[in-house]
Fold this sequence. Notes:
Order of helices and strands: EEHEEHEEE
CATH superfamily: Beta-grasp domain
Bound molecules: FE2/S2 (inorganic) cluster
Amino acid sequence: MTTDIHYRLTLVDANTSQHSHCTASTTLLEAMRASGLAVRKACRNGVCGLCRCRVVKGEITYHWKVPHGLWQKDIEQNFILPCIAYPVSDLVLDQLPLV
Ligand code: FES
C-alpha cells in the first residue's frame, strides 16, 4: 500500500487567497478544479498554454513531460502549465487561469 504525499496549495486571485490542498500524484489543474475554481484549459498536455499560471512560492515537477506551451520569458517569470505540473512542496500560485 502506498500513501500519497499531501501539500498545502494557496491560490491567490486579485483580492483573495484560497487555501486548499494537492497531492503528489494529481496535477495542479485537477487540484484547482477540485477546489471549486473554473479554470481555462484545452489540450491538457502542456501544448496550448491556456492554463498558464505563476508559482509565487514552492516547487513543481513535470516528470517526463515538456511545457511546450510556455515561452522562455514565461519560464523566467515562474509561469507554469498546471495541466502537466505536479507539486513537490507546498505551493502558492497566482495569475490563475480563471474562466
Ligand atoms: S491545457 Fe493546454 S497547456 Fe494546459
